[in-house]
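Journal club side-thread
Mid-discussion, someone asked how the predicted structure for our own chain would compare to the paper's figures. Pasting it here so we can look after the session.
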Amino acid sequence: MRSFYKLSLVTLIAVYVLIAVGGIVRSTGSGMGCPDWPKCFGRWVPPSSVEDLPEDYQAYYSEYRHQKNLKFARYLSVLGFDETADRLVTDEGVRNEAEFNATKTWIEYFNRLTGATIGILIFAVAVASWRFRKSDKSLTIVAIGTLLLVGFQGWIGSFVVSSNLTPWTITVHMFLALVIVYMLVYLVSKSYEGKPLLKAPLASGWVLACLFVLMFQVLMGTKVREVIDQLSMRMGRNQWISNAGVDFAIHRSFSWVVLILHGALVARLMTTQGLKSFPIALILLILGTVLSGAGMAYWSVPPVLQPVHLVLASVTFGMLALLLMEVKRIRKTGALKT
């Protein structure tokens, strides 16, 4: 169990690294640095110069992505999203192919290498969990479920690229990343054999409320970034925030709800026996998330702050998930009577 715990923890940390790298990809505009998937310009090791590509590479990869979108549109139609499917196929903006940029290509390629590493680690977690299929089958079920979800995430990622970063696909991609974090935190918590995190009662509903509020805020932040991506094609950086619209207004105002709710939770945790560094770390993460978000708003979305903002929010989400699982675990074992 100890080795499984270490493997799960390493995999969770690696997922956070991938989220950070993904933030760098978005902030540098490198999402279409590789126009195909899983290869990059048809190669496992991407080119370093435009001279290595054929003259008509833009037309070729535009058509390549269009063919993938036709398949994706059929899936969407089956699910009842006919309007979205039609827009994906008919919108000429989806077919626009960016000019080759070696820096952006290698940033996106590194993102894919990191993702492939995560896939290997999660496969190892799933294999390692098989030994617990009789003694603790929940570990095996969640580990295999995580592997399947990562495979689905990779499939969605291919359509994020083929659809030329169509906004809603990025939001789905981020949501799935949070679900994967939650499942890995479950494996870490379940396999941890040390002392319990909590030694006093704590209302699980409170923690759950913080968790859902934070998830909503992260997804709203993703929608804001989608709006910013569209604005960046039409106007200068100093005009982005003033034209970000209602999504940004909601995201900015809702940050007060996040701050107040988490502040109250931290105040409660500070009085809980056995907790020392955890509530301090949690409030520092929340403050860092809010302040980095404010920095993006006041300083015209500097590229360096976006990955910082995203990682802080994601780590906070993981800590809340861990706290929720600890509350439930202790209640289930009867260690606490609440």
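Post-session note: The first helix runs from residue 2 to 27.
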